[in-house]
Amino acid sequence: MASIDYSERIPNNVSLSENRRLQRALEEWHPKFLDWWMGMGPTGFQEKDVYLRTAVSVDAQGWAQFDYVKMPDYRWGLFLAEPEPGRTVGFGDHLGASAWQDVPGEYRGVLRRLIVTQGDTEPASVEQQRHLGRTCPSLYDLRNLFQINVEEGRHLWAMVYLLDAYFGRDGREESEALLQRRSGDRDKPRILGAFNEKTPDWLSYMMFTYFTDRDGKYQLASLAESGFDPLSRTCRFMLTEEAHHLFVGETGIGRVVQRTCELMRDGKTDDVRRLGGLDLATLQKYINFHYSVSLDLFGSEVSTNAANFYTMGLKGRFEESKKRDDHRLKDATYTVSELTGDRITTREAPALPSLNERLRDDYIADCQRGVDRWNQIVKKHEIDLELRLPHRGFHRAIGLFAEVKVSPDGRVLSEAEWDAKKHEWLPTEADQAYLQSLMLPVTERGRFANWIAPPARGVNGQPIDFEYVRLA
Ligand SMILES: [Fe+2]
Ligand SMILES: [Fe+2]
Questions:
Q1: Predicted TM-score of the model (pTM)
Q2: Which bound ligand lies closest to the C-alpha atom of 155?
């Protein structure tokens, strides 16, 4: 078991004390990070004791130590998954070569860009979620929000470690810039679109953690395959934390569905807004929105960048090492969407430039599994309705479908048809206003807002009415 050295100012399992240069760089960055955290992290709760999980080692048992912590005192640090002895590059032109322990000179710029793009999403989501604490539906949910926030902060640390340790002065400049961009800021926005959207309410947050954090899972998983070993190990450990974020999203939406169905059944009505609930039609609109903006994060269907990342051995496929093919894909093909007039068809394309689409397909299948579980809740209440993922071409801003308007069931529409219908498919101002009207804080132990059911169980074996955040 690789334990983490907490005696140092920056807890780590990367022998920081033996690398004075890196230590100095990180010690200089640390107060700037804290400034950012105090200014842009969760507003209003920095002094409160929160029942948080902290990593104390990176093996299966040790990464989950629970105790009350004030968020600014959270032990952010550098935790990499255990090295795999004799690991080799698993794909691309360097297949079979020893995994790189240092940055291959010719890939320096590309690799830095990949790390910065991933790193930028981490503080972005903290910024997007910073006002949610004030309207929490329960102490349980409040605690989960803060757990996610501190872990996204740590993910930023993970990427900054790579930049500072392996990219010299350029890396240090990028580390600074990661603290300077701001989600939604017109002049210095975050790099990716979905991370500049607002997360103004708890439904949006749960949708974000289900759909957008899941993009993170797929990006991290393909970077975990990287031939650059420090990146691979960093991402492998981040994935263990990411799983919790996805859990919060899936169970959160599941609990909203549960509550909505209870209100429909007990009130014998579809109009649960009358009862202070969230109707399934509104939930569907939020699914449509968050799913479509998250699909954009995978990039264009055909991408030479994606092909290059793969050929260079920097970014693999999801579960690359489990796949049984040549791991070079020079002659392979893959099915991608195509627009033929106003029809959506498919064609066989060369596999390498289609890697974004392949990753998106893996993501879509994963998204569908949660939707199926939500539908089981609906079915259990004998309600004849199904939540659905819209067609992949719906409401897209990047790639093939950015040029057309597509309905949720996959028909290409005229602008006029789209304009006439879009309010049925995407959240309207009235929907957002209704949602805001529900966002009243519930902070009594064991109580939950009317629009969401309690969870099946508490955190770390604690009861549901545990004092997850000490507000007094
Ligand atoms: Fe993250
Ligand atoms: Fe996350």
A1: 0.96
A2: 1
